Amino acid sequence: MRIQVAINGEKHEAEVEPRLLLVHLIREMLRLTGTHIGCDTTHCGACTVILEGRPVKSCTLFAVQAHGKEIMTVEGLEQDGKLHPLQEGFMQEHGLQCGYCTPGMLMTSYALLKKHPRPTEDEIRWAISGNLCRCTGYVNIVKAIQYAAAKFAQGGA
Amino acid sequence: MAPKTSPEVGGMGHSLKRKEDPRFIRGKGTYVDDIQLPGMLYLDIVRSPFAHAKITKIDTARALAIPGVLAVITGQDLAKYNLHWMPTLMSDTQMVLPVEKVMYQAQEVAAVLATDRYTAADGVDAVEVEYEPLPVVVDPRKALEPGAPVLRTDKKDKTDNHIWHWEWGDRAATDRAFLEAEVTVKEDIYLPRIHVASIETCGCIAHFDKVSGKLTVWMTTQAPHAIRTVFALVAGHVGLEEHKIRIISPDIGGGFGGKVPVYPGYVIAVAASVLTGKPVKWIEDRMENLQADSFARDYHIAAELAATRDGRLTALRIKTLADHGYTDAAANPSKFPAGLFHICTGSYDFQAAHVEVDGVYTNKPPGGIAYRCSFRVTEAVHTIERMADLMAHQLGMDPAEFRLKNFIKPEQFPYRSALGWEYDSGDYTAALRKAMDRIGYAALRREQADKRARGELMGIGISSFTEIVGAGPSKHFDILGLKMFDSCEIRIHPTGKAIARFGTKSQGQGHETTYAQILAEELGIPAAHIQVEEGDTDTAPYGLGTYASRSTPVAGAAAAMAARKIRDKARKLAAHLLEAAEQDLVWEPGKFSVKGAPGRARTIQEIAFAAYTNHPPGMEAGLEAVSYYDPPNLTYPFGSYICVVDIDRGTGEVKIRRFVAVDDCGNIINPMIVEGQIHGGLTMGLAPALYEEISYDEQGNIRGGSFMDYLLPTAVETPKWETDKTVTPSPHHPLGAKGVGESATVGAPAAIANAVVDALWHLGVRHVDIPITPAKVWKLLRDHGVTE
Amino acid sequence: MIPAPFEYHAPTSIGEATTLLARHGDDAKVLSGGQSLIPLMKLRLATPRHLIDINRIPGLGHIREADGVLRIGALARESDLEESDLIRTRYPILLDTSKVIADPLVRNLATVCGNLAHGDPANDHPATMLALGAEVMAIGVRGERQISVASFFTGPFATALRPDEILTEIRIPIPPPSSGGAYLKLERKVGDFATAAVAAQVTLGESGTCERAGIGLTNVGPAPIRPGRAEAFLQGKRLDEEAIKQAARLAAEESQPIADLRGPAEYKRDLVRVLTARALRRALERAGAGR
Questions:
Q1: Which of B50, B128, B362, B774 could staple B59 via S-S, CB 3.0–4.6 A?
Q2: What is the pLDDT of residue A156?
Q3: Contact flag A100-B198 (C-beta cutoff 8 Å)
Q4: Partner C contacted by B17 (CB < 8 A)
Q5: How far apart are CA B343 and CA B328, in angstroms?
């Protein structure tokens, strides 16, 4: 089937099998490998992307379902060479170690801050409860997201 | 302790932001599955549903009929090249693909090679295998009973399932101490099988170039050089010699020990690439990862402690059954099949101790130490900390006071334990007292008394652990004969920048930053100017890799030693440039100056330039050095953790209210990174304590073989860890640093378990095995008549 | 983790969708949120030859009250419920339920109607809908019909839906004043199915006694359970501790849990007792607050 998907503002066309998972469209066909695969039962969230403004697990969607829709991946965070405050926050607060869960965390927290610009720590932990991390113990991921929220609050976006 | 270098230089003690982060925050890391090569094929694996069965037929016709399926590889195919069996890292043998029978559920049975991932999966579905089930052995005790089915029929003359017996310590003195003891306590402790489950699973791309005869393998491996040598030893007879093998470990999404073993998938991918001349990619699914890759723990421990009536520990005696799965593939140092389990005297001054371990074969996947635990140290620490708490409670002593009474005292270091380890340094009292202050220990005990009177269940648990890391001195440590040194090679460029390569391999520990900081400390070259590389065996000096918290103690030391060699040459160059005698020069980070004339100086950058443009006669040009560091001893990080829990009497849920961790890893390279390691380690201590378990039913069917039932904590389950530190440098390490990657995973489970038992002690509960699930707690409450 | 091949259809009307379902019968499955179906397909435990994606059918995403009934459309996502002021203020029991389904990411796609139609006894909304006395609208090629939730769940992964029918709407009678409900779930961690969970909805009469009690139990039987004896016991009674505890014991007796990795049957049964009591207390609190 022929589908059209807009990713990070760029339109793409692809010929796909119905069963092609969205994450494989993104990684294999469009070569955007920032979105990762970490499990096979829809638990880990390493594959999180933003679909029409909502963070979703791209391993549990077919590419054909995204036809005509807009997707944002981690590659779309940096704009004109400027890092997003979340990306800055993750680096400033040591919110990543191996980096594998990081794109998923960035996408989920991007959507969170858009909806709830001033989340409490518990709200942050709740929002990222669909994203597993093995390295950081989540403490600094929370701090990274708080860093970005503070930056937005100061108008530094 | 203030850093010796400026923030611009960024030596030890600075919380430098990580140099590796820019690519990860942009999603531009290069993990194995990110790599695509022209003409690349995909490998997927057919796995056994049975734990023990003869293979009677493998029918590949339906699979081969699928367009895009190129081949189905079986054990028979590999047997032609004698590649169907290979050695394990413990000099046992393991199957790559079976010819006769399978020995664990999910074992690799055949491999499908196809043009794309989806076709390979269809191929796997279409391969038809017929099995004749054989009797299954899952209980290691039953495995040792006379008449039990013998699993390793491939081993000539093997008539049982016993692998090895190992013991250490003075049995006679220990038995005597127990006979004479005023008080003894005894407990059976089972540490179930768990799986490290890094978010990135294992995989590789094997690329054999038929023209050059060179094999390049991108691989999720923590030990690329060891892998290269093993491949050369195993496949040398089919033409793969070590100079024709290149292992590249790119970005790795977590290792924790799970990416040390050589998995069959790697070998099959290599074989497939050699046969076809095309790159072959194999990436395992999560369920394959959980069900077939190296596990950790599975120790059945019977422990005893002896003490005087007034609470002085005298002796320790432990007997353990180690369930290794169907082969011994744990990557322990070869002299120590039970790893460093004999650190089990812990932080206490024992007069006598004896420990024995028996390894057993069962119908389960092989492994044993892949979970951030430095060679069985978690098992050792969990045992001694549970037992210490048990003894304290039994004697009616406060568990903190009991520990303070029995700690090895600072003046006793270097301390030789009753089991032969020489602990380098420690101040256990300071760490515990700090933790007690931080958490408000006395107030918590008062609160507990109040709550108990009202029937509320609150517990406080302590774990005062001593770790043993940095394997290891060549006298005692080797893996498959390869000594456990590690290496650093530095080259300084004319403009004073540098490149340094190491024999280790970070999987998130931040080596690109921390190693640069060590070199910045030693040379005064800003860390930002030092490029650190690891993982490519064509360029990196030989090393044994990163696991068991050994990078800082061994490779970090090598970095310091190599830097000092460079400084020695730099001094000569400086003397030449300054026309002064070497002994009249004074070093401070970044420059040599003439004693008494600080204006007469040369920076390291000027010296570097001179090494290429103005070196003295008789001296070679260039400014580089390599060090292969053979550590004189291991290092002994330590700490005290205190955990407060509240137990829900209706549901059995254990809620961690607070957790304070005080760690001592000696001198700290990057405080931010150390803290991150502890947060992560604590979370991987929480997970086995309350959530994670892999078990098998009588037929060898796995329970907990997917993330549905193998429960990794999310941000909601994970407590808000509180961390602090003491600093007790290692006297033998060139930087006084000890390493910290695994301390928290080692120390935390006991703190949590002790807290739960402490909460329930007054009801008559003496011990609970981890994971301490709500169902387990409920049963205890129900049995003691105190459910809601 | 690669599904078997299938043919994909994206109808833009309910009529088109039901025609496709009728044509392909057992070879077809409806795709709405897909967060239960697609994981099964990836493990090849479900291998439908035809997938009928209803996500492009307009007019199905509503959550609104009309004619005495709260209507939740087929494409209302769990996260829509979580973010709805209407649900938060007037139907906290539904918010309780949505919040504990899977995780926040899954909830952005998972639909409430799908949570019922999938028929998994471990799903959470069935118990809540039982407690609320809800009905569902099913539309097939022969037209539409209303099915009471009490008779909707017929067994594990089995519902009263015919192969050509789509569950298009849930209808919950708007509870009278002095009503309150709560859903309490014990899960081993966020994202897990319930070890046990209980929905309780009560309406108090003028005299403060219980006029109606609805209770639903999750994952303690082959289908969601409505413990009728516990409900009947509460009828007309003052909801004091004694009554609540007795109702909780009755509910536990009516549960049929089996042992699994979440725990032994006796534990789950006792959880039903504990959670029923807690849910009733919370429902009562909320009923009082609404007074």
A1: B128
A2: 59
A3: yes
A4: no
A5: 21
